[in-house]
Design goal:
The complex is a heterotrimer. By secondary structure, chain A is an all-alpha fold. Chain A is built from four helices and no strands. The mean pLDDT of chain A is 91. Chain B is mainly α. The longest helix of chain B has 29 residues, at 61-89. Classes of the chains: A mainly alpha, B mainly alpha, C alpha+beta. The A-C interface holds A 6, 8-11, 14, 26, 30-31, 33-34, 37, 42, 44-55, 57-59, 61-63, 65-67, 69-70, 92, 96 and C 4, 6-7, 9-11, 13-14, 17, 157, 160-161, 164-165, 210-212, 214-215, 218-219, 222-223, 225-226, 229-231, 235-239, 320-321, 323-324, 326-327, 330.
Chain lengths: 100, 95, 534
C-alpha cells in the first residue's frame, strides 16, 4: 500500500460493521468449518469429527467479528463479507462434491 | 498423585516467572536493575523447562502442558504485583 | 509493532464499550466459576446426612438390588451400583423415579437395616453447588434459561472480541510494557498497568474460556446449521448398539476386578445399568483417571459390557481418536478437570485474577474520566463515572456476598422449606440487590468498604453453620471430612477484611478529587440538596 494513501478509520460505523460481523460472519464461519472438515482426515463422518467440526465455528466466527472493524465503513464490511461468503460456499460445494 | 513432582513443578514454575520478571527492564524488585544483564531469558527458561519435566511426571503429556502453561500464566500475571509489594514493604521507598 | 493510530482508536472504542456492557456480568461469571471448581466438595459439605444404614459390602450389592427390584420394580429401567459411596451418593444401590413434574427425576437409595429389612430413602443431594453453577453459566442473570443462555453466548462472543481488541490496542507497546506496574502519582497509568499485567499473560487462558463459552451457549444452533449446510439435513453420529453377548450379567464385584485389569490408574466410582428392549442390559462405568482431562467435569464415563466386563475404551480420554481428544481437551481446558485438586486450585486463582481483570477495567474507565482538582475548591466528579464506580462496587461485591449467603443457608434451609432451589435463589438475589442499592446510596468508596464487611460477614456464616451442626442447633449438620470448605471460607473472610481496611485508608487519605473520596460524596449530596431547595 502507498504511504498515506489509506483512509482513516473511525468508530462511527460500529453498528453496521458489528451486524455484518455477527450475521455474515456466522454464515462464513459455518461454510469455512465445512471446508476445513472436508479437507481434514475423517471428513464429515464420525461422532467425534462431527463434534470437532461444530467447535470450529466459535473461533472462526469470533475472528471475523474481531477484525470486521478494520473495514472502512458498513457498506464495505457487508460487501466484502458477502463476497467472502460466496467464495467460501463455492469452496464448500467443491470440497463436498470431491468428497462424494 | 505424588507430592514431590507436584511441589517441584510448582516451585520451578514460580521461579521461572520470578526470573523472567527480574530480567525485565520494568522490574521493581531489585533496586540495582534487571538481573541478569546478559543472557536474560536463560535462567527463567531453564526453570520453566524443569517445571514442565516435573509436570509430565504427574499428568498425561497433553494435560501436563496445559497445567504447566496455566501455572506460568498465573505466576507471570501476579509477578508485577509481588514485585511492587516487595519494593514497598521491604526495599527503599525512593522509587 | 506499528499499527495506525486510527486503528488503535477504533479498537480502543470497541474494547471500552464491550467492557462497560459485559464487564460486570463477566465478573460474576468468573467469581462464581472459581467457586464451582470445588462443586463436589461443596456438594458434600452441603448435603444433609443420610438416615440409611451403612452400605452393605460390594459383594452383597446384587442381594440389595434384588430386594429393591422386588419392592420397586420401576427401578429396573435404570439404576446404579456405587463402588465408593460418598456423602452425596450414600447408598450402594441408587435409582431414579419419575416425579410429578415433567422431566423431573427423583433419586432414591437403598440399604439393609441391621435386622435385614430393606431401607429406602429419597436422596437429598444439596443443590447449592448447582445454584452457583447457574450463576456462572448464566452470568448471574435472573432470567429463564433460554434467554439467559442467549445473553451469555452474546457476552462470551463479545468477550472474545474484547480480548482481540485489547491485544491490538496493546501491541505497539507490548514488549516494552511487559511486566510493568508503574505505581506513581498517575493513577490511570497504574490501573492501566494492573489491567494489562492481569490480561496479557493470561490471554491464552481467557481466549480458551471465551471461545468454549460461545460453544456452550450456542452448540444447539451450531449443530442445527451444520446439519442443514454440511450434512444434508441430518447428522450421522456414527453410534451403534452393542449386541448382547450373554444372559446373566456379572456381579458388580467381578465387574470391578475386570475393569481395574483393563484400566490401570482409573479409579472406579460406580456402574450404571439401563434396561433396553427385550431385557437386554446396557451398562456404563463411571470413575476418574486424574492424570487426564475430562469433559464431564468431575468424572469419566464409558460403555461396559455387563455380561463380559469388557470396557469400550473409545470414549475414554487418552484412548479416543485425534478429533475426540481435541474436543475432550476443549472441555477440560474450560473446566480445569485435569490433574486433580492442584489444577483446580490453579483455576480458582486464575478465575479470581480474571474477575480482577474486569474490575480493574471498569476502574480504569472511571479513572480516565476523573475531573482534576485545580484550586482549593473540590470538584464534583462526572455522574457517569460516579454511577459506573458505584455499580462496579455494588454488582461485584453484591454477587460475592450473595453467593456466600446462599451457601451459608444450605444447612438451615432443608429443615424449614420444601423448594430449596427457589430459596437459594431468593437469598442470593436479595443480598445481591441490597448490595447494588447500598453502593448507589452510599457512594463507591464508603459502599465498597461496607460491602466488603458484608462479604466477610456472610462468608463467616459458612463455618458458623458447620459449627451449629457440630452443636446440633437448628437442624444444621456437619459432614465429616468437609472442613476444607469452612477453612477456605475463613481465609476468604480475612482477605475481605484486609481489602476493606485498604479501601477505607484510601478513602480517608487518598485524593479528594475522586469518586472514591468521602469528600466527593458529601460535595455531591450538597449539590443535590441545593438543587432540591431551588
Amino acid at each position: 500500500m502507498r504511504a498515506g494513501a489509506r483512509a482513516k478509520l473511525d468508530s462511527r460505523h460500529w453498528f453496521g460493521k458489528t451486524s455484518a460481523g455477527v450475521l455474515l460472519g456466522y454464515t462464513l464461519a459455518v461454510a469455512l468449518s465445512g471446508v476445513i472438515a472436508g479437507l481434514t482426515p475423517g471428513g464429515f463422518e464420525g461422532g467425534n469429527k462431527v463434534q470437532f467440526n461444530m467447535w470450529m465455528i466459535a473461533p472462526l466466527w469470533a475472528t471475523v467479528l474481531g477484525f470486521v472493524y478494520l473495514f472502512r465503513d458498513s457498506w464495505r464490511a457487508w460487501w466484502w463479507l458477502a463476497l467472502a461468503n460466496v467464495a467460501a460456499f463455492g469452496l464448500l460445494w467443491a470440497v463436498r462434491s470431491l468428497a462424494g | 498423585m505424588s507430592a514431590w513432582p507436584l511441589l517441584l513443578a510448582t516451585l520451578f514454575g514460580a521461579a521461572a516467572a520470578a526470573l523472567f520478571y527480574l530480567a525485565s527492564p520494568q522490574q521493581q524488585w531489585r533496586s540495582a536493575g534487571p538481573w541478569p544483564a546478559r543472557w536474560r531469558c536463560w535462567p527463567g527458561s531453564l526453570c520453566a523447562l524443569l517445571s514442565l519435566v516435573m509436570t509430565t511426571r504427574i499428568m498425561a503429556p497433553m494435560e501436563a502442558v496445559f497445567a504447566w502453561l496455566v501455572l506460568l500464566m498465573f505466576a507471570a500475571s501476579i509477578a508485577p504485583f509481588l514485585g511492587i509489594w516487595y519494593r514497598r514493604s521491604f526495599a527503599g521507598k525512593t522509587a | 509493532m506499528k499499527i495506525g493510530t486510527d486503528i488503535i482508536k477504533v479498537y480502543k472504542d470497541v474494547h471500552i464499550w464491550v467492557g462497560i456492557v459485559c464487564g460486570l456480568m463477566l465478573f460474576i461469571a468468573f467469581y462464581a466459576g472459581s467457586i464451582t471448581m470445588f462443586e463436589k466438595p461443596l456438594e458434600r459439605w452441603a448435603t444433609p446426612p443420610s438416615a440409611l444404614s451403612p452400605p452393605p459390602p460390594l459383594e452383597n450389592a446384587e442381594k440389595l438390588l434384588d430386594a429393591v427390584l422386588a419392592e420397586r420394580p420401576q427401578a429396573a429401567k435404570g439404576y446404579s451400583i456405587v463402588v465408593t459411596p460418598t456423602t452425596d451418593q450414600p447408598a450402594r444401590v441408587i435409582w431414579a423415579e419419575r416425579g410429578e413434574r415433567p422431566r423431573q427425576l427423583i433419586e432414591y437409595g437403598a440399604s439393609f437395616a441391621a435386622d435385614g429389612r430393606l431401607e429406602v430413602e429419597k436422596l437429598r443431594k444439596a443443590q447449592t453447588a448447582q445454584l452457583v453453577d447457574r450463576m456462572h453459566q448464566f452470568v448471574g442473570l435472573p432470567l429463564p434459561d433460554d434467554a439467559a443462555r442467549l445473553i451469555m453466548g452474546a457476552v462470551a462472543l463479545a468477550y472474545a472480541v474484547a480480548l482481540l481488541s485489547g491485544l491490538i490496542v496493546l501491541l505497539p507497546t507490548l514488549v516494552e510494557d511487559l511486566f510493568a506496574l508503574r505505581a506513581g502519582k498517575n493513577l490511570k497509568r497504574m490501573w492501566l498497568d494492573a489491567h494489562n499485567a492481569l490480561g496479557i499473560f493470561s490471554l491464552p487462558f481467557h481466549l480458551i474460556i471465551a471461545l468454549t463459552s460461545v460453544v456452550f451457549a450456542f452448540h444447539d444452533p451450531f449443530y442445527d446449521t451444520q446439519a442443514k449446510v454440511l450434512y444434508g439435513g441430518e447428522i450421522n453420529w456414527g453410534e451403534h448398539e452393542a449386541a448382547p453377548t450373554g444372559r446373566v450379567p456379572l456381579p458388580a464385584g467381578e465387574l470391578l476386578v475386570r475393569v481395574q485389569a483393563q484400566l490401570p490408574g482409573f479409579e472406579v466410582f460406580g456402574f450404571t445399568f439401563q434396561q433396553r428392549e427385550g431385557g437386554h442390559l446396557e451398562a456404563g462405568v463411571i470413575g476418574l483417571d486424574p492424570r487426564r482431562g475430562t469433559r464431564a467435569r468431575t468424572y469419566m464415563r464409558t460403555h461396559l459390557d455387563p455380561y463380559t466386563g469388557e470396557v469400550d475404551t473409545h470414549d475414554l480420554p487418552g484412548r479416543m481418536d485425534g478429533w475426540g481428544e481435541a474436543v475432550n481437551a476443549f472441555f477440560a481446558l474450560h473446566f480445569g478437570s485435569y490433574g486433580g485438586n492442584p489444577v483446580r486450585w490453579l483455576y480458582v486463582l486464575m478465575g479470581l485474577a480474571g474477575a480482577a481483570l474486569f474490575y480493574t477495567g471498569n476502574l480504569l474507565w472511571v479513572e480516565s474520566r476523573r475531573r482534576m482538582q485545580r484550586g482549593a475548591a473540590p470538584v464534583p466528579q462526572k455522574r457517569s463515572a460516579r454511577v459506573l464506580a458505584e455499580l462496579t462496587v455494588g454488582v461485584s461485591l453484591g454477587s460475592v456476598a450473595g453467593i456466600s449467603a446462599t451457601i451459608a443457608a444450605a444447612k438451615w434451609l432443608p429443615a424449614r422449606v420444601d423448594d430449596l432451589m427457589l430459596w437459594h435463589e431468593v437469598i442470593y438475589y436479595a443480598v445481591f440487590f441490597i448490595g447494588v442499592a447500598w453502593a448507589l446510596l452510599r457512594g463507591a468508596g464508603r459502599g465498597a468498604a461496607e460491602l466488603l464487611w458484608l462479604c466477610a460477614l456472610t462468608t463467616l456464616l459458612i463455618p458458623f453453620s458447620s459449627l451449629a451442626g457440630v452443636w446440633g442447633i437448628g437442624g444444621a449438620w456437619n459432614q465429616a471430612g468437609t472442613a476444607a470448605i469452612d477453612l477456605t471460607a475463613l481465609v476468604a473472610v480475612a482477605v475481605f477484611l484486609l481489602v476493606a481496611r485498604f479501601t477505607r485508608r484510601r478513602m480517608r487519605h487518598g485524593r479528594t478529587d475522586s469518586v472514591w473520596s468521602v469528600a466527593d460524596q458529601r460535595q455531591m449530596t450538597q449539590v443535590v440538596s441545593k438543587g432540591a431547595l431551588t
